[in-house]
């Protein structure tokens, strides 16, 4: 199998990711790429509580993810690679564009400098430009909170 979903969601692992996407896509591996969480036992434990025991969860740094993406792509599991921000996913795309071909924009919430693009998606102009550059480089980027809702093309968010 392979990594079947690359998602940006600033809440990281939560019900919408595990139930909404995980069940619908028969995910059996979640790879959370976050330098802080990768070194925090208590945060990892909190996130693990949201995941069924039969789903493997790996907490990795950005550097480790870049090194192991090809292995995850061919390890026989259906994987979901998850980041909390655009910059991390952009770096992963640069590291291995064959693995990070499609990017799902999930819950990216309000903070200073961001403006609403969709009810569940707030981006700064710089984040939008970064995504547009990734798309110009061949990535397929859509915003979609759940697999049961229609995807919204990146060009519709400008």
Describe the structure.
- The protein is of the alpha/beta class and 158 residues long.
- It has one domain: 3-Layer(aba) Sandwich (Fructose Permease), CATH 3.40.35.
- It is 35% helix and 24% strand.
- The protein contains six helices and nine strands; from the N terminus they run βαβααβαβαβββαββ.
- The protein has helices at residues 15-23, 35-38, 41-48, 62-73, 86-95, 125-136, and strands spanning 3-8, 29-33, 56-60, 79-83, 102-105, 115-118, 121-123, 140-143, 152-153.
- Strands 3-2-4-1-5-8-9 form a seven-stranded mixed sheet.
- Helix 5 packs parallel to helix 6.
- It is globular, with a radius of gyration of 15 Å.
- The protein starts with a strand and ends in a 5-residue tail after the last strand.
- The model has no long low-confidence stretch (mean pLDDT 95).
List keywords for this structure.
158 residues, alpha/beta, Fructose Permease, 7-stranded mixed sheet, two-stranded antiparallel ribbon, 6 helices, 9 strands
Give the topology, please.
Layout: E1 3-8, H1 15-23, E2 29-33, H2 35-38, H3 41-48, E3 56-60, H4 62-73, E4 79-83, H5 86-95, E5 102-105, E6 115-118, E7 121-123, H6 125-136, E8 140-143, E9 152-153
Parallel strand pairs: 1-4, 1-5, 2-3, 2-4, 5-8
Antiparallel strand pairs: 6-7, 8-9
Helix pairs in contact: 5-6
Which ranges are low-confidence, i.e. pLDDT below 50, for 5 or more consecutive residues? none
Counted up, domains total 1
Look at the structure and give the mean pLDDT: 95
Task: State the total count of DSSP E strands.
Answer: 9
Q: Please give the CATH architecture.
A: 3-Layer(aba) Sandwich
Q: What do we call the CATH topology?
A: Fructose Permease
The order of strands across the largest sheet is 3-2-4-1-5-8-9
Can you give the helix content as a percent range?
A: 25-40%
Structural class: alpha/beta
Task: Measure the end-to-end span.
Answer: 34 Å
What top-tier CATH class fits best?
Answer: Alpha Beta
Q: Could you state the CATH homologous superfamily?
A: Phosphotransferase system, sorbose subfamily IIB component
Output the helix-strand order: EHEHHEHEHEEEHEE
């Amino acid at each position: 199998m392979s990594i079947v979903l690359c998602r940006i969601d600033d809440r990281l692992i939560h019900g919408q990711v595990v139930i909404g996407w995980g069940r619908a896509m028969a995910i059996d591996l979640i790879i959370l790429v976050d330098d802080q969480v990768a070194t925090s036992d208590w945060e990892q434990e909190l996130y693990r509580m949201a995941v069924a025991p039969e789903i493997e969860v790996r907490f990795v740094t950005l550097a480790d993810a870049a090194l192991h993406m090809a292995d995850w792509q061919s390890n026989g599991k259906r994987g979901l690679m998850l980041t909390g921000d655009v910059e991390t996913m952009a770096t992963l795309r640069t590291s291995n564009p064959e693995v990070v071909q499609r990017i799902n924009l999930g819950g990216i919430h309000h903070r200073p400098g961001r403006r609403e693009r969709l009810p569940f998606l707030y981006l700064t102009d710089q984040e939008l430009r970064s995504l547009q550059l990734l798309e110009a480089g061949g990535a397929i980027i859509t915003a979609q909170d759940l697999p049961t809702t229609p995807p919204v093309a990146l060009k519709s968010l400008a």
